Amino acid sequence: MIRIIAIPDGLEMESGWKNQEKLHESVHRVMPGYLEDLLKKTNQTPQNRDDRISGVIVDSPLAWMMVIPKKMGLKIAVFWCSSPGCLALGFKIPELIEEKIIDNDGTPLNNKSIKLLPNMPEMTTTDLMWYFPGDKNIQKSIFHITKGTIHHTINNADWILCNWFTELDPTSHNLTPNILPIGPLLANGQSSGSFCPEDSTCLAWLNTQPKNSVIYVAFGSTSKFTHQQLDELANGLVLTGRPFLWVAWAGLVRDGPSPTYYIHNFMKRVGGQGKVVEWAPQEAVLAHPSVACFVTHCGWSSFMEGLSNGVPLVCWPYFGDQMYTKSCVCGGWRVGVCLEGGGDEGGIIWRDEIRDKIEEVLCDGIIRENALKLKEKARGSVGKGGASLVNLEYLVQQMKF
User: Fold this and answer.
1) Mean pLDDT across 312-335
2) Where are the transmembrane segments (predicted)?
3) Which H/E stretch holds residue 268?
């Protein structure tokens, strides 16, 4: 019942994806025309009434494209792919500019903390999801994209779909009445699709490990490490003396060749203590009874998958909304601990801290108890009669002609 139709972005296959500025320009220039043409042609000549498009769901980074279905009278939902706090931050941008906490390009003007939601930690200026001190042009670009996303969402979206559940932060609904929490969005053990081939051999390896023993390590597809940091991580895992499953994909290292050669030699040294794969079926891994904790970059989808399986977290954020998710994990929901680093110029997180924080999260009964409580609430929300399922059913009815 699902048709997949590709809309060109104006670039040759893979040629422009490494140049984000070129990709951004091409998407804005090329895609709107194709989308409008698709919507018009589909609705002008449908084979039957059920083939007509009655509603459009737009991913939040493409929120500016909502003006096209809006002018055609179609119903529109935007999918917000981040946290309640970062949505609150977006709504608060005009106030932050007026109070001179940030300038018109999002640059912090002071170190004042920002209260976003009553039950969550305050956000520091270094937790702003566009904060990127290493490159002011990137920071400015991300800020204006965020500001534009919120502007189009407020003015054009009938509903804001959110990958969280109401009990995670009940006050988030006060931001705007058209928020629909529909999370956690889970595949329930089925493949949900991936840009990288998933290595399912890790599941068989997990079957051989004791219950609640394995450290699962994965940083999504955005985090980048130096070779020195890679070495510290590897040795920190060895120092725990515990079995580990590490997702080390080819793009993990930023200052040289693929980590494949290093990983190969490392695994020869550690033998059966660990397993390394390039990509894993993450939801199935996190649901496995042998997994004890999750060393994560705090990407929102990864966080929700970990939380929905009651797995405590060791937070190692890299960029964007991951920074504030870390604060909420450790200081709000208290379902994990944070790696801080030694404050040295290179920002290295050393092997001893990696070992110590993993041991801390595994030995903290309160963290595990909190994680299991939120797991039950998450699962209940998408079960029969649960708030997220009710919201999803409501959306389906509203999207129909």
Assistant:
1) 96
2) none
3) helix 260-270
> What is the spatial distance between Cα 35 and Cα 40, in angstroms, rounded to a whole number?
9
Q: What CATH number should be reported for the domain whose range is 84-183+385-399?
A: 3.40.50.2000
Tokens of 146: 């965020």
Q: Determine contact, residues 332/311, Cβ cutoff 8 Å.
A: no
pLDDT in tens, 350-361: 999 999 999 999
Q: Is the domain covering 201-379 a CATH 3.40.50.2000 domain?
A: yes
Q: Both tokens of residue 357? A: 């924080």
- Please give the share of the chain, as a percent, with pLDDT higher than 70: 94
**pLDDT at site 327:** 96
Write the DSSP string, 127-182: G-TT--TT-HHHHHHHHHHHHHHHHHHHHH-SEEEESS-GGG-GGGGGG-TTEEE-
Nearest-angstrom CA–CA distance, 44 and 339: 55
Longest dimension (CA), the chain: 65
- In this structure, how many other beta carbons lie within 10 angstroms of the beta carbon of residue 174? 12
Domain boundaries, the chain: 1-53, 84-183+385-399, 201-379
84-183+385-399 and 201-379, same CATH topology = yes
Q: Which helix (H) or strand (E) holds 245?
A: strand 244-247
Q: In angstroms, rounded to a whole number, what is the distance separating the alpha carbons of residues 337 and 329?
A: 8
pLDDT tens digit sequence for 91-137:
999 999 999 999 999 999 999 999 999 999 999 998 999 998 888 99
122 CB contacts (<8 Å, ≥6 apart)? 113, 114, 115, 116
